[in-house]
Design a protein that fits this description.
The protein is an all-alpha fold. The chain contains eleven helices and no strands. Helix content is 64%, strand content 0%. About 4% of the residues have low confidence.
Length: 213
């Protein structure tokens, strides 16, 4: 980002002595640069780098995560969308659980029913502090993210990849469906590695079609 800003003659560094106008100009330049780099990298199909940025915690969801998810949905890129959303869901859940664990260690016990009953918008807009309110705030943020991320997956025609999906399709009378249950097509040596137990995960596709064969 810094290189892009420098190359385009835009402000990239600030100090505590900057005026409000200078700070706003720098932030606007940063936002403009983020959108331009996002557009360029999507054109170049640099999905791995973009997904890494989306999960890095440096940007709000509306800067990279959401435009990238919408691109994956529009172009039916299920593997990339799944990787983007599933990791996002895991990170949101881990953040929520870490917050709950920290508060529980500090206060001993937690009343989950009280947490669920807290009106989060009212708590956030108020001036009082409550450790249960803080947990409710993080819980709501994580759940909202998870629901939003899952919503992207619901928008795309996904292959039947999970056992739960297969069982559900069978339960509603579907006997034929398309998808890769264990993995996408792969070279025989890669398949042998999985059989030996040396490899249990399938990476998202690279930008090289030959590599993905």
């Amino acid at each position: 980002m810094t290189k892009w800003l420098k190359d385009n003659g835009l402000p990239c560094y600030g100090t505590a002595n900057d005026s409000p106008e200078e700070t706003k100009a720098r932030l606007d330049a940063w936002m403009h640069g983020s959108k331009e780099i996002l557009r360029q990298w999507i054109t170049e199909k640099r999905y791995r780098e973009l997904i890494s940025c989306a999960h890095g915690g440096w940007y709000q969801d509306d800067v990279i995560f959401e435009p990238l998810a919408e691109h994956f949905v529009a172009n039916h890129l299920f593997d990339e969308l799944r990787f983007l959303c599933e990791r996002g869901i895991r990170f949101s859940a881990e953040d929520m659980l870490a917050t709950i664990k920290s508060e529980k260690e500090e206060h001993g016990t937690l009343d989950i029913e009280t947490i669920r009953s807290i009106d989060v918008p009212s708590y956030v807009s108020g001036r009082s502090y409550s450790h249960l309110g803080e947990i409710a705030k993080y819980r709501k943020r994580a759940l909202d993210q998870i629901i939003r991320y899952a919503g992207y997956l619901e928008q795309i025609h996904a292959p039947a990849e999970y056992l739960e999906q297969v069982k559900f399709l069978q339960s509603i009378g579907c006997e034929l469906f398309q998808g890769f249950y264990f993995a996408k097509p792969m070279p025989s040596d890669s398949f042998e590695e999985i059989l030996r137990g040396h490899s249990k995960t399938i990476n998202i596709p690279s930008n090289d079609p030959e590599e993905d064969k």
